[in-house]
Amino acid sequence: MKNNGFLLKYVTESGDPATQFVSFDSPALADPEFRPYMDICYIPSVRPVPCTEGQLVYYDLNADTYIARDNLVHGAEEHLFIGNSGWAGKARTLIDFDINSFNTDLTELFDDAESVYLRLWYEGAELSKPYNDPRQMERKLAAHKIQKAWNEAHATSNVASQSGDNKNKWEKEMMGELNDYDPDVIATDIISEGEDQHNIYFNITSVFKDWAADKSSDHGIVIKDSQHESVPGYFLKFASLNHPDPTVRPYLMICQKKPICEPEDLPPQKIYNHGCVSKENVTLNFCEAKNGACSADD
Fold it and tell me: Which end of the chain is more exposed for a tag (fewer CB within 10 A), N or C?
């Protein structure tokens, strides 16, 4: 079917001809807050439950914060915010993982496409004040790879990090594409109007593999509203690393291949090597064997 738009017609309840005009703001209005927009209701997507066959390991994040046009540091706050709330403007969340805490030499991902998920706890929508015309709407969240080093103790809408009196600024306010973050979308999730509290998951396997291949490229990800970021409404609120409840703090869920140890169907047994037997337990990969061959020095 061709998309030729639609016509709005004023019809009176009595059926008599209209005797007055009804005016609405147009898309060309100077103030974007009051421009018309379209809300689309999609069938909810099923959020993934990763790692049903591999070994699921949880990893702590290194840092998180959110940036807003207030140009303030928010790295020590209990919540992260994404969206746009009118007078308070846009908000984007930054999250970092220390790739050095993941043993890339001894650990393999179970699946090259769906092994690493960022888990966030969504607490609901929050209105930034003062505001007199709130419109909570569906927001499509998109995760992007950050290209520049940042620090949660200094990151603002204009500054990425700071060393002494030297400020390392973003290319543009609220971060610029290409130099500050990669425009390619890593993963998405949709928060619809009125959704209750729940976990959300971002599949960041592709960028995690990039970090593992080049650890110097690990600057984390930025999550922003890719659908209505310029349209005011509510901020979406998520628990941060500083949340008082540790069970809702964000973390990585990594589905790893199970380490290979001694056969599961055989009991632990002494292993002799040139007439010598170990006296202590030995560690093979990430598994502890009850007995193992002694070294040449024994």
Answer: N
